[in-house]
Specification:
three-stranded mixed sheet; 21% strand; 4 helices; 73 residues; single chain; alpha+beta
């Protein structure tokens, strides 16, 4: 992933549109991320499959979710 400023994007938009076909480009303004350029053809299912197993199977009641607590069963 590449991080650039909004000014850099405006100056070299063609370069970053091409680059976004192979990697994500995050654009910042005043030091904060505002947008991410990504390939529209990216295989979303492959991305989802890569995440399987990274998130534990935890269950929360609505009250626990509001309190920010996690119950492991």
């Amino acid at each position: 992933m590449m991080v650039i400023t909004a000014t850099e994007l405006k100056t070299n938009i063609g370069k970053y549109l091409s680059l976004a076909m192979t990697e994500d480009v995050v654009v910042t303004k005043n030091g904060k991320g505002i947008v991410k350029l990504t390939n529209i053809q990216q295989d979303k299912l492959a991305v989802l499959d890569s995440l399987v197993g990274l998130i534990a199977d935890n269950r929360m009641t609505p009250e626990e979710a509001k309190a920010g607590r996690l119950i492991r069963q």
